Description:
Layout: H1 11-23, H2 27-41, H3 48-61, H4 65-78, H5 83-91
Helix pairs in contact: 1-2, 1-3, 2-3, 3-4, 3-5, 4-5
Amino acid sequence: MQAEVSPDRDPESLVIERMRAALSQNAEEVLRLDDAASRDFGADSPRVAERGLLRVRALVRMDRIGEARSFAEDLVERYPDDPSAKSAAAYMGIHPRPRGPSR
């Protein structure tokens, strides 16, 4: 029996829940879900960085470390104030460059 979905529930949050659930068992499914969500919700979605963090973690699980690092760098560059982007950077050991003029 499937749980009923509340009509006022954000559809993207349901995708993110599925991504989280898949992370420990099927990292490739996380990438597939993220690709579909990118098409469905677009690059302007307020949850894109949250999905990106899960993508980074899935890539690491698949031993695609270079790709995960590049993706995390891109996330923190595009969304420097987003907590999920910051988490992705920290997960990969990335220290973002300070913004503003250099000294």
